[in-house]
Design brief:
CATH class of the largest domain: Mainly Beta
Strand content: 35-45%
CATH superfamily of the largest domain: Protein of unknown function (DUF3299)
Radius of gyration: 20 Å
Structural class: mainly beta
Oligomer: single chain
Protein name: DUF3299 domain-containing protein
Pfam families: DUF3299
InterPro entries: DUF3299 (IPR021727)
Number of domains: 2
CATH topology of the largest domain: OB fold (Dihydrolipoamide Acetyltransferase, E2P)
Organism: Roseobacter ponti
Order of helices and strands: HEEEEEE
């Protein structure tokens, strides 16, 4: 069946409205997020226990993760871009396929992990060729809340990466 001209015009009008509303990929590729955007209003981004100097020659503090004070769900299902540092979890022969994105160098390994709402579990189909531990990157992809536990920390968010680039 051949569509009539009014049907095509209606489709084009709907697509135009979608693009102008910011819901289409043409008008908005991603939402730029910062780490403070992941913390509920009124909560500190970095808890007081992690602020200040860390004694690196002291006892191992990596297991002392502060409790999370909730998550924000405004960006569930959205394409976002978030900067951070790579803490590799899974490798393939060609690169990292899963990692924890953390807001500062040393998080989860040398100092206590941040609260779960300051950690993002990133997966990627195309392995990321990391140049080393704690590489600064921008990660763009589908974002959402997803409770995950690893041996390093509890994690409150997940991101399915479409694009990973050096920061």
């Amino acid at each position: 069946m051949v569509k009539s001209a009014p049907d095509r015009r209606a489709v084009l009008a709907a697509l135009g409205a979608l693009i102008l509303s910011g819901k289409g990929a043409v008008a908005r590729d991603y939402i730029d997020l910062n780490w403070t955007d992941l913390v509920p209003e009124g909560q500190p981004a970095i808890p007081p226990s992690l602020q200040g100097l860390i004694q690196h020659d002291g006892p191992d503090m990596s297991g002392q993760q502060p409790p999370s004070q909730g998550v924000r769900t405004e960006w569930n299902g959205e394409i976002v871009r978030l900067p951070g540092f790579v803490v590799p979890i899974d490798y393939s022969r060609t690169g990292v396929t899963a990692f924890i994105l953390v807001p500062f160098v040393g998080a989860c390994v040398h100092v206590p992990p941040p609260p779960a709402n300051q950690l993002v579990f990133v997966t990627t189909e195309k392995p990321f060729e990391s140049t080393g531990l704690f590489e600064p990157v921008n990660v763009t992809g589908m974002f959402g809340t997803a409770s995950t536990s690893t041996q390093l920390a509890d994690i409150a968010y997940a991101l399915s990466a479409d694009h990973i680039e050096p920061f």
